[in-house]
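Reviewers of the previous submission asked for a worked example of the structure-prediction workflow described in the proposal, so we include one complete record here. The input consisted solely of the amino acid sequence. No template or homolog information was supplied to the procedure at any stage.
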Amino acid sequence: QRNGESILRVRTTDQSVLYGVLARLRDLGVSLISLRTIKSEESKRWYRRWRLGQILSYVLVSGGIIGVIVFLATEEILHVALALTLLFIAMGALAFRMTTLDNGIGWRILTAFNGLAAIITTIVFVAVIGWVHPALVGAIVAFGAAGLLALWMRRWPVRPFVDEERPSEGR
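From that input alone, the workflow returned the following structure tokens.
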């Protein structure tokens, strides 16, 4: 991470797996500067404490963002739909930042949902303001949903049944 160095974290079940990983790194020509082992109980306690701090910081910063957005919307500085868009963008950016600190799936899901909510509120804002005809807004939503479905189907392809996996036909 610093000075061009990378940090590699490996969870192993026993010493032989660790030695196998180290041998593979040596075979790849990766120079190893230091090795630190953490006991599993110590690791769990540290991770739990760090995760709680991350969640609390996310909640506190989110509260501040929500306060600013509510002020901007109630004082009519921003349109409500635009304020909601900015809220979801800020919350998604904050969740993405938490993803860089802790590569947890929860932060990724939160980032994706905030991004989706930002897109939806942007579309609502554009329709309410009158920049785009409502029929075009419907078309944008339909094409966007089709694109997301295509992306989802590409990521998780449907496996055809193999003969031994085929469900019984009620014989």
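The mean pLDDT is 79. We consider this example representative of the routine output the project will generate in years two and three.
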